[in-house]
Design brief:
Helices cover 26% and strands 34% of the residues. The chain has 253 residues and is of the alpha+beta class. The protein folds into 2 domains: 180 residues, ATPase, nucleotide binding domain (Nucleotidyltransferase, domain 5); 64 residues, no CATH class. Strands 1, 2, 3, 6, 12 and 13 form a 6-stranded mixed beta sheet that branches. The radius of gyration is 20 Å and the shape is globular. The two termini are 36 Å apart.
Length: 253
């Protein structure tokens, strides 16, 4: 992979966020990643609410996350909410519909409808631009979308149709297909944990220390999210790669 930086977008049911890692930093320290601190009043978190406020034209994002919640509340106080589109907790429509049709529509909080592809792609586009703004402040030479490898996480229990819908939504948000990887959420967590010092080991004459998973280690991955919960079992192979012993199984909450 020749990309200078990898950006991961976690499009969650309840909360969303992004993180990135430069190639040279990953080579020195695989668990060194940077992410955004989202602010909502006095609350600071590494993810923001998965909600979007879309302007009356039905095509333009006004705000996302905590800002979208605040602005929609202001519109409601001024009795202007019917002119705007406010969506939250809509991601699981992909699971319920067993892979949403491309021409499907979503109802917002007041019952108004927009194409599902529009809502999903606008959310991805916002997160894309948000991380690009942050990267632009850290790198003297501007980074373009094509300089980045993008990773979009999805629940393990989604079928191929739902994954394809997300891929097309990302492409509609102008993320090139060749720069995009769709990654299962528990697999991403499992790969990250492979680099953490999580097991205790000791050698005669040496102090007890923490070490990474060794070959042959089997472990369970439990992904309890805001919309789905699933369980799978992985094993570390002799080459240090991961093998799935049991396919992820789970259900929507």
């Amino acid at each position: 992979m020749d990309s200078l930086v990898v950006v991961a977008i976690d499009f969650g049911t309840t909360y969303s966020g992004w993180a990135f890692s430069f190639r040279h930093e990953y080579e020195r320290d695989p668990i060194k990643v940077s992410s955004k601190n989202w602010q909502g009043g006095t609350l600071v978190s590494q993810k923001g609410p998965t909600c979007i406020l879309i302007k009356p034209d039905g095509k333009t994002t006004d705000s996302f996350g905590y800002d979208a919640e605040s602005k929609y509340a202001e519109k409601a106080e001024e009795n202007e909410q019917d002119q705007w589109f406010f969506y939250k907790r809509f991601k699981m429509m992909l699971f319920k519909d067993k892979g949403m049709e491309r021409n499907a529509t979503l109802e917002d909080e007041s019952g108004k409808k927009l194409p599902a592809m529009t809502v999903f792609s606008l959310c991805i586009d916002y997160l894309k631009k948000d991380v690009l703004d942050t990267l632009g402040r850290q790198v003297d030479i501007g980074l373009s979308v094509s300089d980045i490898h993008w990773v979009l996480t999805v629940p393990a229990i989604w079928n191929d149709a739902a994954k394809q819908f997300m891929r097309e939504a990302a492409q509609k948000a102008e993320i090139p297909a060749k720069n995009l990887t769709i990654c299962l959420e528990p697999e991403a967590a499992s790969i990250y944990c492979r680099h953490l010092p999580v097991s205790k080991s000791s050698t005669v004459g040496e102090k007890t220390s923490l070490a990474q998973f060794s070959s042959g280690t089997k472990y369970l991955v439990l992904d309890a999210g805001g919309g789905t919960i699933d369980i799978t079992v992985h094993e570390v192979t002799d080459s240090g790669e991961l093998k799935e012993l049991y396919k992820a199984s789970g259900e929507a909450l």
